[in-house]
Amino acid sequence: MQKYLQIVAFFLVFDLFNPTSGQIVINEFVPANVSTTIGGGTNDWIEIYNAGSSGVDLLNYGLSDDLTKPYAFRFPSFILPSHDYLLIFPTDENNTLPVHHWETAVNASTTWKYFAGVSQPDTNWRNLSFNDGGWNSGGGGIGFGDGDDVTTISNSAKSVMMRKTFNVPDTSDILKAIFNIDYDDAFVAFLNGHEIARANIGSVGDRPMYNDYALSSHEALMYQGGNPDSFFVDPVYLKSILRQGQNVLAVEVHNFSATSNDLTSRPFLTFGMATSGMTFSTPPAWFGTPPMEYFTAKFKLARNGETIYYRIRTA
User: Fold this and answer.
1) Structure confidence by residue, pLDDT tens digits, 266-286
2) What domains lie within the chain, and their CATH numbers?
3) Most confidently modeled of 11-20, 275-284, 288-297?
4) What backbone torsions phi and psi does residue 21 show, to the nearest 5 degrees?
5) Kind and range of the H or E element at 176?
6) Which of 29, 57, 156, 161 is most buried, by the most CB atoms less than 10 A from its CB?
7) How far is Cα 145 from Cα 143, in angstroms, rounded to an integer?
């Protein structure tokens, strides 16, 4: 026998004969999110909380917004520790592999290929196929002014383009990515020619010219003791653009005006790994490991309200 109670904004499946089931509660949900980000955008989210004194395996628990599909999202075997939280983003795509640890594949302090933006480079420079043999090489960060650059370029440059190739032996071991950058004044970042993050210039999909300027001034933070900005890359998008073998991170940083007296570019790319081995390197000390793991679910919450079902197994 099964009972259904109509409630608003969530669906939780649990077994009443399992004494731990009452520990797991929907702690909070946001069906019209405007701040919490995943993949550089805002998404609805549901927060699960373990209110008990022991960990609970979420296997056989599920979430849905459709009574005819009660397991639109089914949790994997995942131990939610006592008094801990778990986020589920209804992004219309299921992702149930938790990150084991984080590794930095591209570090700003290594050697990069770079082009000082005093003229227009070949537009193909952002792509893996581009031959950067004619570009300069130098350690990051790259720019001028403020004394925070390992490689200094001409202060007449309106921008700087940077490329870093790296090898991925097994794409299935990479679940998520965070792009960090310390920049002055705007940037766009590409992975294998596909945009993964931008700030303060143009619009998504636009490829700026070398002499396009930032929308406003943005000061670098690391030389002042701060941390670089952080941008999540959508896991589904990441999977579609990451390659087995050689990959390239390409970053362009633009100044605010022709009279700007500083320019800074210090990019980092860090991956959430599925297994315990070490493929790349330990993240920098400032790297903020995400405070909680999250899954994505194959449904979305309606902004104007909908009926969701709370299912109770009684037999």
Assistant:
1) 999 999 998 888 999 999 999
2) 2-98+293-313 (2.60.40), 101-273 (2.60.120.260)
3) 275-284
4) -65, -35
5) strand 174-184
6) 161
7) 7
